[in-house]
Amino acid sequence: MSVEQFESISLTVLITALICYMGYIVWDLAKRSNAGRFGTAILFFALGLGVVGFVIKTIIVEVMDV
User: Fold this and answer.
1) Range of the domain at 54
2) pTM for the whole thing?
3) From the CB of residue 42, how many other CB atoms can be counted at a distance below 10 Å?
4) What is the pLDDT of residue 40?
5) DSSP state letters, 1-44
6) Which residues contact 39 (CB under 8 A, 6 or more apart)?
7) What is the Cα–Cα distance from 3 to 18, expressed in whole angstroms?
8) pLDDT tens track of the chain, all 66 residues?
9) Can you give the pLDDT at residue 33?
């Protein structure tokens, strides 16, 4: 396995783990603050936009490299 392959795989795995952990943090924040269903949905929507932006950026970079 080359260094580039290792970096690519580890980046994908660790970013996925970080996103899952951030989801847990948002869920815990909503639970502790008694946000209710609507508040929890708003928290996940607002904070999830950052994840969506990261995914879109990755897709655009891959498309432009081709």
Assistant:
1) 3-65
2) 0.71
3) 13
4) 93
5) --HHHHHHHHHHHHHHHHHHHHHHHHHHHHHHTT-HHHHHHHHH
6) 30, 33
7) 22
8) 899 899 989 988 998 899 899 999 999 999 999 999 999 999 999 888 888 888 899 899 989 987
9) 93
Tokens encoding 39: 């508040």
Q: Are 51 and 22 in contact (CB under 8 A)?
A: yes
Report which of 43, 45, 49 is spatially closest to residue 25, judged by C-alpha positions: 43
Interhelix angle 3-32/36-65, nearest 10 degrees: 160
Cα separation, 55 vs 50, whole angstroms: 9
Q: What single letter denotes the amino acid at residue 60?
A: I
- The pLDDT value recorded for residue 63 is 93
Total tally of structural domains belonging to the chain? 1
8 Å CB contact between 48 and 27: no
